[in-house]
Amino acid sequence: DTGVSQDPRHKITKRGQNVTFRCDPISEHNRLYWYRQTLGQGPEFLTYFQNEAQLEKSRLLSDRFSAERPKGSFSTLEIQRTEQGDSAMYLCASSLAFLPDYGYTFGSGTRLTVV
Amino acid sequence: AQTVTQSQPEMSVQEAETVTLSCTYDTSENNYYLFWYKQPPSRQMILVIRQEAYKQQNATENRFSVNFQKAAKSFSLKISDSQLGDTAMYFCAFPNNNNDMRFGAGTRLTVKP
Lengths: 115, 113
Prior knowledge:
The structure holds two protein chains of two kinds. By secondary structure, chain A is mainly beta.
């Protein structure tokens, strides 16, 4: 297992376009998290899955954002009608279900630039 | 909701010296874990150290140790014998109702040669 993988590493898109990011977690991890990180700030929670179920969504996750985790494996995060304010690093992390014992393993992130 | 505060946006230290990064948090829970993460310029977050709140002994991982003061809700990170590779953003993190991790705003640490 090579850890948490995210694709693409970088994405530049025009305002109004849709983008989709992919995250492949550590195979035995049943929890998967999406975070957003703007420059110089800490990661902000967006949503998380336990297996295929999306259990919590942050108020930061507007209607333009949707996340899926079919079959409890990889996950996708889609942003529709992108806005310049969506420019950020999107981080994926995975863990075993009982978070406090183990912490997270993060991917390298997808940097989105909306022009 | 739990909050995490890091009051030092930037710090610097000379190579081989010791530096302490501060973190305070707020929670009504009694049993919990606290974490420090490192994010080097390559941007991948790495777990540095974790502390279990019910343990009085401060956690230590090689050159990294914490000063955990539960009553004061303080969780500082001490880096001894600082190395150039320690240059990074450091985030204090705290589980939010066991569902997700909440992060502080971070401290940018620069180790100077």
